[in-house]
């Protein structure tokens, strides 16, 4: 038995080593997708060994988005630049970003609002430790820490108010302790002990929440323990016959994808946060991936879930692809936002890596035409892996992120393209908008598919605008989070929020929400016109997902975060009044709790509450999200 | 409370009002032709979807809403969908305007000529125009003018053209269409025509509402309609209708528009063109059918002096802020928006409340001329007043009116007697002045022999004409007057007794005057406040006491309401004495009129205003509302079933005979 397992382990090692050696050579040829993915960090062999360290602060910012080495800044010449080596944009100069920042927000280099450089450890309240619990944990050999840095790092997600407070050096309630289980049975032990000693557990995956889900409830008096799943990050097995993989839930998106790619597979689940967010987090928030048109959202991908609750372990007894056994228990788990237990292992569908991948883009004379085209694409059910429609403001924003062009020829070509679209075709540069496309599959079918989509687009006045524009569009989503940090250095705060809405209401909702934001900002004394922009990011049979960006220059405001929150609140009310949903994939957390009853009816809320009541009567999972 | 934002409690003297400009001044100086042909470049709505009048028809016919209703009607009636669609298209042809700049220019020219003949001045608050210019750019605009004369909408379009504002499309009654040439001219200057009644006609309603909504959504043009539904023959504001208001608000409720701006406009005339025409109508001489030849005959009116005219453009009222906290827009989430939906009860209440508030804004901004005060006094003194005491009392009344917040246009640099004599001159056809005694009277030399009935009618025409001026200021005195009457009839100083009486009267007269439903406490407090401020009353914890100097004011206020009290009593008495069990609704007005006439002839009634069919209709409506009278449908006829005991007790209460039954005291 032992020798058997050790030999398989050795075999696996050999295979992995083989992959590692092979990679540099065939990177360009084998996976076309890789070349295109400007957004995913360049593969770094060592990172696949320990992707997320326990001490996250070693590689990631404590008061901003992403890796410490990657950030936007203005260099000595006053030009915007993106540092580091991880991204396609890394090390490049972005000549038009500064003008865009000035033009859009009135944010100039003279007015700086720098962050507190280092974490002031004395501002962190001493931990409220439950000693007997610690004793038992130590006996069970679970890694733990009550180092203030570790605790602060796990006390927040990436909501504006959370990051703003950190930048100001303000630390609120933080977990009293962090534990790092390494496998399912560790979690079982931790949960059992938590029940025994009545401590509050808050599961922590990638920390990318934007719904205040990770905030420690102020009213919590028990010891709060952050349960960091990052060390549960192995792919336990892969089933080639059924195309499934059994994976520990703490694995983060990019590692899962990379490791599967090494074996010729992918999940195809690519939420914008996939560099940092975890599989367990996806399940707990009902995540959606960019390529859901081919692969589906998380609820379509999951075959089996194992979750540890105070009542015990919940899971199904087989891996059947669909069941009629009453309400699907997975749907109690998906979207439970850490209120019921910890997802430890997930069996999910995998697919062979697509042979061919191609970006594309289409320019439309205006947003209405663009939406009409997306609607038609959805009607014909021929949406590519991803199709997104950016409004005019975002189109201009995308242009601001164009790196310096190296040759005169390219800039000449750009000029020519612009001339063709605006002068020859008569598109108004202040109204035109762009759809970005990503096709995936075997080469022949991709090309055929591409033609079909472009033909539809042409009917709505759309002009093909090249692969490069498409690719840059997708890059934008990955760097925008970094860009917020730059904004915050210069008095600009902002965030994104999303909804889903029936097709016939998309245009009205977009217009009304954008206008509401502008109006609310004005009424609340914001001195500069805000950026209020949206894009349609997903298409469904019966509607679409709409994503808003909202940011403004807060110079002259005494409590910018409060103003921001009021405007965001008003925007959400507007969304609901216009037939939009409370959330498409960000979740509810604590930020949107107040609207839950209105959203799902009081009976619906009662149902969820009674589940919570049964599963966790002691409220061990006490993050107070959702309900 | 949104109503607060819309209608702030009055601080009469403090309220700053915009200044007026006389637009005719410029017209008298430069060429009308050049003016009519000048370059017209209106300010446009920022979200305008450019579209021609002809395209509009297609958009409407192709709309999901109309297509849905066409299918529905076709499956209900068994007619083919094509057939129903054809019908819809015909309805639309009959309805649609065909706005043309050339026609507008023609009107600009002819109206310039006409207005200069008719009016000494046409005064417009230019600040209001500037606000409108702003509002027009931001959101689609709905213009809500008051309606006292045919002149109203001609004047509106004329002014908007003059100030380079987009020309409105105007909802007009179908009766205009029968005026052959003029109907078409109006159509080409932006009028669209709606049938007076189309109660159950689904298709008509769908075409109509979709037509209006399409123009609103596309920002095609400001929509103009009259909240009061028709011209007020009495110059009192009429109880507003909510149908069209619902149509223009729905695009906001359903999220199709971010907001809609409602702009109340108050148009007031120093002398109304239709003055005696209205009086005749109220007395049952049927309204002449609108015809072109009739209009030509009316050319005579061009030779007379109608004094000045005031147009006040009010502050735009945002539907969004009106509806905030009152309309839950997500109620529209679960039904596709093109499927017609009857407004829910709460929506209906909201519409009603909003309509009342808007009409009150119209009232508030209505400019009043000195003649209105004089008319009020002359009506209260049927035997006339000598000039000096008329002057004295007018001056007194002027100060009272100002203290109550009246928007009075009193010439600054003239003495009171100068003002009065020029007012009397303008309205000399209603008066006789002999030996310093001013009296309402028939001035045309009495033609041959007149029967006593004819004499009464002649007198009544004068009284009702005069009352139409007094009515313009009623809204200023209404609440204090209700309080004054309540104090008189309550026979008690106790605040809650007085409030009960006040509430009874308010309830009784809520078809007669603009009294927002549900505002009774507010109205009571406002009345107390105004009279207290004037030193007429002292309002104590539990009691309301008249001050020594308050007597004359209270007497005056009581007489303001007196004609209405008497008129309602006459209606009640008639119903009690009527023996016909099968009195039909149609017979009601002539019968009451006859009854009243006989009372006057017998010398038992002095109040000629009781002859007004408007008052009689309102009284009946009130009795129906109070369930003292029921309507019963028998075949085609609607008969009135009278609960004589109830009517009798209402009559007594109106006459101040028995104290009011105590309704449950709201909150005081």
Structure description:
The complex is a heterodimer of chains A (627) and B (668). Chain A is an alpha+beta fold and 627 residues long. Chain A is 39% helix and 18% strand. In chain A, the strands form five sheets. Chain A has a seven-stranded antiparallel beta sheet with strand order 18-15-17-16-20-21-19, sandwiched between helices. In chain A, strand 11 and strand 12 form a beta hairpin. In chain A, helix 3 (97-105) runs antiparallel to helix 14 (392-400). Chain A starts with a helix and ends in a 12-residue tail after the last helix. The model of chain A is unreliable at 19-49 (pLDDT under 50). With 668 residues, chain B is of the alpha/beta class. Chain B contains 26 helices and 16 strands. In chain B, strands 1, 2, 3, 4, 5, 6, 7, 8 and 9 form a nine-stranded mixed beta sheet that branches. Chain B has a three-stranded antiparallel beta sheet with strand order 10-12-11. In chain B, helix 11 crosses helix 12 (243-253). Chain B starts with a helix and ends in a 14-residue tail after the last helix. The A-B interface holds A 504-505, 508-509, 511-512, 515-516, 576-579, 598 and B 255-256, 258, 328-330, 332-333, 336-337.
């Amino acid at each position: 038995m032992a020798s058997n397992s050790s030999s398989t382990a050795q075999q696996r090692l050999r295979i992995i080593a083989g992959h590692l050696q092979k990679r540099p050579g065939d990177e360009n040829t084998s996976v076309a997708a890789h070349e295109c993915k400007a957004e995913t960090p360049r593969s770094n062999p060592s990172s696949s060994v320990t992707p997320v360290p326990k001490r996250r602060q070693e590689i990631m910012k404590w008061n901003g988005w992403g890796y410490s080495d990657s950030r936007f800044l203005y260099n000595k010449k006053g030009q915007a630049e993106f540092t580091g080596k991880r991204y396609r944009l890394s090390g490049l100069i972005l000549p038009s970003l500064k003008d865009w920042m000035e033009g859009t927000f009135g944010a100039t280099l003279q007015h700086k609002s720098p962050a507190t450089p280092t974490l002031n450890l004395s501002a962190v309240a001493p931990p409220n430790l439950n000693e007997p619990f610690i004793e038992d944990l130590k006996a069970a050999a679970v890694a733990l820490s009550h180092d203030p840095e570790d605790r602060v790092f796990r006390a927040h997600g990436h909501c504006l108010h959370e990051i703003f407070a950190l930048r100001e050096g303000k630390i609120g309630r933080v977990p009293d302790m962090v534990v790092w289980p390494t496998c399912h049975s560790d979690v079982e032990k931790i949960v059992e002990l938590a029940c025994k000693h009545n401590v509050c557990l808050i599961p922590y995956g990638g920390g990318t929440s934007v719904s205040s889900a990770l905030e420690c409830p102020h009213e919590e008096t028990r010891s709060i323990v952050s349960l960091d799943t990052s060390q549960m990050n192995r792919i336990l097995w892969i089933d080639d016959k059924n195309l499934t993989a059994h994976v520990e839930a703490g694995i983060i998106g990019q590692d899962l994808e990379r490791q599967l790619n090494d074996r010729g597979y992918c999940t195809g689940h690519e939420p914008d946060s996939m560099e940092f967010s975890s599989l367990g987090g996806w399940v707990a928030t009902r995540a959606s991936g960019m390529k859901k048109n081919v692969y589906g959202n998380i609820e379509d991908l999951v075959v089996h879930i194992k979750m540890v609750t105070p009542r015990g372990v919940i899971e199904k007894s087989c891996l059947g692809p669909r069941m009629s056994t009453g309400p699907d228990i997975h749907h109690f788990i998906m979207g439970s936002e850490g209120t019921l237990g910890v997802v430890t292992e997930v069996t999910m569908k995998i697919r062979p890596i697509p042979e061919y991948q191609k970006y594309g883009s289409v320019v439309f004379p205006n947003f209405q035409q663009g939406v009409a085209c997306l609607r038609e694409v959805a009607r014909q059910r021929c949406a590519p892996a991803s199709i997104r429609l950016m409004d005019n403001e975002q189109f201009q924003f995308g242009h601001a992120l164009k790196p310096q062009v190296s040759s005169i020829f390219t800039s000449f070509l750009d000029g020519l393209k612009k001339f063709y679209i605006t002068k020859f075709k008569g598109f108004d540069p202040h109204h035109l908008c762009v759809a970005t496309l990503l096709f995936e599959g075997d080469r022949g079918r991709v090309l055929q598919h591409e033609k079909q989509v472009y033909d539809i687009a042409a009917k709505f006045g759309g002009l093909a605008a090249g692969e490069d524009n498409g690719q840059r569009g997708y890059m934008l989503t990955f760097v925008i989070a970094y860009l917020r940090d730059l904004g915050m250095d210069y008095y600009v705060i902002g965030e994104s929020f999303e909804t889903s809405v029936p097709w016939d209401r998309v245009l009205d909702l977009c217009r009304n929400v954008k206008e509401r934001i502008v109006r609310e900002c004005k009424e609340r004394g914001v001195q500069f016109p805000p950026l209020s922009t949206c894009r349609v990011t997903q298409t469904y049979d019966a509607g679409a997902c709409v994503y808003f960006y909202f940011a403004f220059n807060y110079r002259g405001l005494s409590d910018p975060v409060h103003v921001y929150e009021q405007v965001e609140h008003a925007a959400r009310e507007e969304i609901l009044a216009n037939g939009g949903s409370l959330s498409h994939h960000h979740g509810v957390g604590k930020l949107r709790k107040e609207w839950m009853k209105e959203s799902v009816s009081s009976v619906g809320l009662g149902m969820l509450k009674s589940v919570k009541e049964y599963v966790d009567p002691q409220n061990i999972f006490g993050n107070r999200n959702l309900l | 409370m949104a109503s607060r934002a819309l209608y702030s409690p009055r601080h009469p003297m403090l309220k700053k009002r915009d200044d007026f400009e006389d637009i005719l001044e410029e017209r008298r100086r430069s060429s009308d032709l050049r003016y009519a042909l000048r370059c017209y470049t209106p300010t446009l709505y920022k979200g305008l979807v450019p579209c021609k009048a002809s395209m509009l028809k297609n958009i409407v016919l192709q709309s999901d809403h109309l297509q849905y209703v066409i299918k529905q009607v076709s499956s209900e009636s068994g007619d083919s969908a094509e057939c129903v669609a054809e019908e819809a298209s015909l309805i639309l042809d009959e309805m649609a305007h065909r706005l043309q700049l050339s026609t507008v220019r023609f009107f600009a020219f002819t109206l310039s000529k006409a207005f200069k003949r008719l009016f000494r001045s046409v005064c417009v608050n230019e600040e209001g125009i500037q606000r409108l210019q702003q509002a027009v750019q931001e959101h689609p605009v709905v213009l809500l003018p008051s309606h006292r004369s045919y002149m109203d909408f001609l004047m509106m379009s004329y002014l908007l053209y003059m100030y380079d504002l987009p020309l409105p499309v105007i909802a007009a009654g179908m009766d205009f269409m029968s005026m052959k040439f003029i109907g078409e001219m109006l159509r080409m200057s932006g009028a669209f025509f709606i049938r007076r009644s189309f109660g159950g006609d689904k298709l008509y309603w769908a075409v109509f509402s979709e037509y209006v909504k399409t123009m609103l959504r596309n920002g095609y043009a400001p929509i103009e309609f009259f909240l009061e539904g028709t011209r007020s023959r009495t110059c009192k504001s009429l109880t507003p209708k909510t149908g069209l208001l619902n149509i223009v608000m729905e695009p906001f409720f359903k999220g199709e528009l971010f907001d809609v701006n409602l702009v109340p406009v108050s148009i007031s005339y120093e002398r109304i063109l239709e003055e005696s025409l209205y009086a005749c109508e109220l007395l049952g001489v049927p309204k002449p059918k609108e015809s072109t030849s009739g209009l030509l005959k009316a050319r005579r009116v061009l030779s007379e002096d109608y004094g000045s005219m005031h147009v006040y453009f009010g502050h735009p009222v945002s539907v969004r802020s009106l509806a905030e906290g009152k309309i839950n827009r997500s109620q529209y989430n679960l039904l596709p928006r093109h499927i017609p939906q009857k407004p829910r009860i709460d929506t209906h209440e909201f519409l009603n409340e909003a309509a009342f508030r808007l009409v009150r804004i119209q009232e508030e901004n209505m400019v009043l001329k000195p003649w209105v005060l004089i008319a009020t006094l002359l009506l209260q003194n049927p035997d006339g007043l000598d000039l000096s005491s008329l002057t004295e009392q007018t001056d007194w009344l002027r100060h009272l009116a100002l203290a109550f917040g009246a928007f009075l246009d009193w010439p600054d640099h003239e003495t009171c007697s100068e003002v009065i004599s020029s007012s009397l001159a303008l309205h000399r056809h209603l008066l006789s002045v002999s030996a310093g005694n001013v009296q309402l009277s028939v001035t045309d030399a009495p033609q041959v022999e007149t029967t006593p009935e004819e004499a009464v009618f002649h007198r009544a025409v004068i009284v009702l004409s005069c009352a139409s001026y007094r009515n313009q200021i009623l809204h200023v005195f209404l609440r204090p007057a209700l309080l004054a009457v309540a104090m008189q009839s309550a026979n008690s100083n106790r605040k809650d007794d007085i409030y009960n009486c006040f509430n009874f009267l308010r309830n009784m007269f809520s078809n007669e005057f603009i009294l927002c439903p549900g505002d009774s406490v507010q109205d009571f407090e406002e009345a107390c406040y105004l009279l207290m401020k004037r030193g007429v009353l002292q309002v104590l914890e539990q009691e309301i006491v008249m001050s020594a100097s308050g007597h004359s004011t209270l007497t005056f206020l009581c007489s303001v309401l007196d004609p209405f009290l008497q008129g309602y009593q006459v209606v009640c008495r008639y119903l009690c004495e009527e023996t016909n069990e099968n009195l039909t609704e149609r017979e009601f007005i002539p019968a009451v009129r006859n009854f009243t006439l006989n009372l006057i002839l017998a010398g038992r009634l002095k109040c000629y205003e009781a002859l007004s069919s408007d008052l009689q209709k309102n009284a009946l409506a009130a009795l129906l509302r109070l369930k003292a009278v029921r309507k019963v449908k028998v075949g085609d006829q609607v008969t009135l079933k009278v609960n004589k005991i109830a009517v009798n007790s209402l009559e007594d209460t109106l006459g101040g005979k028995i104290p009011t039954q105590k309704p449950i005291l709201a909150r005081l």
